[in-house]
Amino acid sequence: MASDVVVVPSLQVAWRFVVIEARLRGKTVMGTRVGGIADRIVDGYGGFLAPPRDPQDITEKILYFCRESDEATQRVLSIRVYKVWKW
């Protein structure tokens, strides 16, 4: 089963590797403005960011993605992974 979006609604510092892996696979990432998530997403382009503990905001962004999937996908694809990550 495939997905078009990865949602990471973390309240504390989250591992940024989830975001990096999703982006490498061309997935839209929606997450909260915490730790590694906020470091790896340009809101509206590399995915969508919402404030922690704001379910209304992240819900609106998910609905936007569902309604405007073509536009949202194009905006996400315009961002390229430009760093080489060393593990």
Question: What labels would you give this structure?
Answer:
87 residues; alpha/beta; Rossmann fold; 4 helices; globular
- Biggest sheet descriptor: 3 strands, parallel
Give the beta-strand count. 3
H/E order of the elements?
Answer: EHEHEHH
Based on helices, strands and strand pairing, what is the structural class? alpha/beta
Strand content: 5-15%
Helix share bin:
40-55%
CATH overall fold name? Rossmann fold
The CATH architecture assignment turns out to be 3-Layer(aba) Sandwich
How many domains make up the coordinates?
Answer: 1
For the record, the CATH class is Alpha Beta
Q: Care to give the gist of this entry?
A:
The protein is an alpha/beta fold. The chain has four helices and three strands. The protein has helices spanning 17-24, 35-40, 55-67, 69-77; strands spanning 5-8, 28-32, 48-50.
